[in-house]
Amino acid sequence: MVTKKMLDALNDHLNEELYSSYLYLSMASYFEEKNLKGFAQWFRIQSQEEYGHGMKFYGFIIQVGGKVTLKAIKAPKTSWKSIMEVFAETLAHEKHITGLINKLIEQAMQGKEYATNNFLQWFITEQVEEEATVEGIINKLEMIGDAKSGLFMMDRELGARMAGQ
Length: 165
Ligand SMILES: [Fe+2]
Ligand SMILES: [Fe+2]
Known about the structure:
The chain is an all-alpha fold and 165 residues long. 78% of the residues lie in helices and 0% in strands. It binds fe (ii) ion (2 copies).
């Protein structure tokens, strides 16, 4: 049994994941404009992944007999000062999502909602991976600095990302 309060919180989080998808698609568009196709590809996949996360919430809400109520997705930023700023904001955003997942788990534990708690565990692992990946990219960008050759190589590396990775 999932309480109304928990279902509302899960619905709100579905919106957060869809916003994440929208934010990363906006970042992809920023890189397309700069002709950094590899970076753009990485963010396209990132956006797809976030849509997938949203759909996990969608599926769970339906499975436990709730109703999905979609809300407006806020408009993301459309431009950034630098590549580093994009990734710094990506990391900050992932940390924000991690915090929200932790709060959902606390709520599930307090309400002894075991099924919801179990569903949310997958996201704990996912958030650790996401933060580590973005931190890794930031470290590389710091090493590269202003070197155009490094940026070119990084664009190729990120462009190799496939769906589901
Ligand atoms: Fe996510
Ligand atoms: Fe994420």
